[in-house]
Design brief:
mainly alpha; two-stranded parallel sheet; globular
Length: 200
Amino acid sequence: MCEKIRCSWAGSTPIYMDYHDNEWGRPEHDDRKLFEMLILESMQAGLSWITVLNKREAFRAAFDGFDPEKIVRYGEDKIQELMENKGIIRNRLKINAAVNNAGAFLETVQKYGSFDQFIWAYVDHKPITNHWKTMEEMPANTPLSDKISKDLKKMGFKFVGSTIIYSFMQAIGMVNDHITDCFVYEELFKTQPCNSSTKI
């Protein structure tokens, strides 16, 4: 049986390989999951993604399963409790941003019907498929992530810089950035309707 070829960043750590194989780049449309990924990507800023993955379950427990309806009501006592939680990333600016973003997220849902409808409209509700042969070719941000970042900031979101947003787009499958030799790239390319086959 041939060994599966993966993107090099997946490495050999089981939690990383599982995330690569089953989540990263696969189109996600559930609002709760989209909010979770937006928060986790903002928490990653300045850190490695493996750090976030290792703390993911602790984050879910600490942040009420990433329920924006609950998070938006967090007061100073809850924020202080989170700051004392060794299982998560204890950064007050990021925690405050998560509470703020819960409110902005709910306002977006109210306006557009769902966050899914809002965010996927940027790619006409179809994934963008790139054709990278190596990880080195992959950009840290794009004109589209620049635009989404700018729009989100206008809507009141925080910790949503262009690089964070591009990572978010990759994570939720708005962009298929698996390298062309990766088995997930093949799966997605064959089964998903594609917005574009050009690098964007």
